[in-house]
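Side project, low priority. Logging it here so it doesn't get lost.
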Amino acid sequence: MSRIAFIFPGQGAQVCGMGQDFYENSQTARQVFDKATELMGFSMPELCFEKNDRLDITEYTQAAMVTTSIAMMKVLMERGVKPDVAAGLSLGEYCALAAAGVMSEEDAIATVRQRGILMQEAVPVGQGAMAAILALDAAAIEAVTDPMEGVWIANYNCPGQIVISGRKEAVEEACERLKAAGAKRAIMLNVSGPFHSGMLTGAGEKLGKVLEHVEIHEPVIPYVANVTAQYVTSADPVKELLVKQVSSSVRWQQSVEAMIADGVDTFIEIGPGKTLAGFMRKINKGVKTLNVEKWEDIDKAVEALV
């Protein structure tokens, strides 16, 4: 019997048209989008399905991504595919919380809307930056960045890909130092802020105030927290972990390794794109990875697990 993990992508995977085929083919998916429209006060189908400038703006992106991934997840679960554990990359952690029964779908969508606004407002545009460092191991990157001020490791994505974040000048300097230390490439990312860096500590604290009004339930299944890369099996640490997550490193590779060590052999990436599937190939080729991003993927996933 397969042990299944539902995994959810983060910001950056959004694409115009995401989830539209689910909306058109499933009453269940349509209800998720329509509920999001009620909560947000703007049309979620319009934001996700029609060309516009808002989809790539953080305060809109986060709610759009979580709505889309939850709609897809609910259709998959309706077809009888249930996870043993859940995890999500950064923003995707809120979908994992919904999958684990820790947070209602409505609260997940409403909370990330506030999270997006707080992250957008935390640092003036142009002051922060992020960069992907390729083909240099974590220890070598840490040796360069740890002594530096104004730069942090944002994401441990997979072997050979780590993202750094922080003050623009510090990130640019770190890129030069890391290339000198042997990095194959250092690519500045097209993002609106220095996410998962110490510059967003204040945004995390403000998110804590938002979370005071959110009901957290005991997990029905465990989820893996970005901050610790460990299983969460109780409601107690959830809010503190979500506050820290805004300014802490996303330990994605370590999270996946923890699930594999627990016997997970099938990972289903739910949401637009195949970013996490790409990471999986570099973390461990021995496990099965499926994608659900289009309507026809539901049948493929169900058939693959029968």
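Brief comment: Residues 58-78 form the longest helix (21 residues).
Revisit when time allows.
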